[in-house]
Amino acid sequence: MHVVLTIGGVMRAGVVVCALLVSVYAAQAAPVYDGSAPMQCAIKSVMVCDDPSICVRGTAQTVSLPSVLSVDVGRRVVGPDASGRTIQITAVGRGAGRLMLHGEQIDPLGIAWNVVIVEDSGVMSGAVLSQGGGFLMFGACSVADGARPGR
Questions:
Q1: Mean pLDDT in residue range 125-131
Q2: pTM listed for this prediction
């Protein structure tokens, strides 16, 4: 059997190989912080507002939160903290490269919270609101150790 290589055939084979390499790279570069694996989210700073005219900078401890939150979107839970408390994620959304989480704790506090995580970097911001005020939190998430096989 005699095979004749042509420039067109070599070019087509090269295009196919490049397309395969790009698709493999794109699969490996998929967003890490999309909720498909449990995450650890470190709260780096907090702004607490108890009055419309006064906000105070603080830490997670200022608002009685642990400095690192465990977030498991698959199980729809945040926590547990050191005392074993958890809070349920009541809604999950995704869009514009963001993972958006929402929750409510009606009894006894009547609070609502939202967290937005940038899927390709893990940068996190959130808000917790109640009748008397609330706080903003800023930080970053990382994928929990051992949560994502092959990474």
A1: 94
A2: 0.75
The string of DSSP codes covering 23-47 is HHHHHHTS-S-SSSS-EEEEEEEEE
**What element of type H or E holds 8?**
helix 7-28
Angle (CA) 92 136 114, round 5°: 10
Q: What is the pLDDT of residues 52-102, one digit of tens each?
A: 888 999 999 999 889 999 999 999 999 887 788 899 999 999 999 999 999
Instruction: State how far the Cα of 83 lies from the Cα of 80, in Å rounded to an integer.
Output: 7
Cite the beta strand spans of 15-148 per DSSP E. Answer: 39-51, 54-58, 68-72, 77-78, 87-88, 91-95, 98-105, 111-118, 123-130, 133-143
For residue 123, count CB atoms less than 10 angstroms from its CB and return exposed for 0-12, middle for 13-18, buried for 19 or more: middle
